[in-house]
Amino acid sequence: MNPAVVAPSLLAADHGAFAQGVLAVEAAGLGWLHIDIMDGHFVPNISFGPQVVADLRPLTKLHFDVHLMLSHPDRYVAAFAKAGAERLTVHVEADHDVAKTLAAIKAAGLSAGIAMNPDADPRRLLPFLGDVDLVLCMTVFPGFGGQAFMPSVLESIRFVAAERARRGANFRLEVDGGINVETGRLCREAGADTLVAGTAFFKAADRKAFAAALTA
Fold it and tell me: For labelling, which of 19, 31, 101, 165 has a CA lying 20 to 30 Å from the CA of 129?
């Protein structure tokens, strides 16, 4: 089992003060920042692009865990690599050759991840598990923060965790959507080791204590 990681989502920070959001993550003693990139096509919302990533990169040594919720993620690998991402996660459902995109991510020197929506059959991930460093099981339908956790995804998390164990693999198993102390515990019991927390983290009265509770 990989050590637990909490990755606060920049999407839930004040969009007029992203630098302060980054500092809040550092102040909580965390090492990862989850960055959601949305194009208004693959998901019904638009967030930000590689320029925001590039502008934040000099401000911090946080690991930039970039989640590409894009119809054609393959077209943006080079841009986000140049901007300073260290990990790019792409969706199995998007309109691209998944294997080629994962290879391009690795060729750019980045860690590669594969994501699935809550209603996806986790068996769709099987051809790619040998090529990734992370699997992201969305626990809400992507597009907007603040949604309620979908318990039905726990079955998919268990499936991926069991496949990881069967293969003797060590890719990270990430969850994103409605993650708080209670739902985070359920996900960790199912096999997740990487918890994306947005609204719950940034609204916590004591963010450091919240993050510690997620990994307790």
Answer: 31
